[in-house]
Amino acid sequence: MPSGDNWHRELLRQMTIEIKKVRPAVITKGTYDHLNNYLAFRHVVRNVYTFNLSITKLQVLIDDLIITFSEFKQDIGVFCAFITE
């Protein structure tokens, strides 16, 4: 179980790791990369004044949201199929 200030970043990273003879990775590296961008944005919003937000970076997150959700949904579906076997 991750702990400390970066527990959420570590948990996300751990979800990409396959544990042989136990479970596959929960999410793919591609999904991790997308979700990590949102995690970084969360960090900025929580720790920097919101008037310093980059509209360009925010637009990238908005544009990627549907793709990110679709990839995550697919990854979780595969993982759920594995655990129900």
Task: Describe the 3D structure.
- The chain is mostly helical.
- It has 3 helices and no strands.
- The longest helix is centred in the last third of the chain and has 30 residues, at 55-84.
- The two termini are 25 Å apart.
- The relative contact order is 0.14.
Top keywords for this entry?
single chain, 85 residues, mainly alpha, 0% strand
Question: What is the structure about, briefly put?
Answer:
The chain is an all-alpha fold and 85 residues long.
SSE topology sketch:
Layout: H1 7-14, H2 29-47, H3 55-84
Helix pairs in contact: 1-2, 2-3
What number of domains? 1
The average pLDDT score comes to 91
Helix content percent band: 55-70%
Output the radius of gyration.
Answer: 15 Å
Query: Which runs of at least 5 residues are low in confidence (pLDDT < 50)?
Result: none
User: SSE string, helix = H, strand = E?
Assistant: HHH
Based on secondary structure, the structural category is mainly alpha
- What proportion strand? under 5%
Main sheet? none
Total count of helical runs of at least 4 residues = 3
First-to-last CA distance: 25 Å
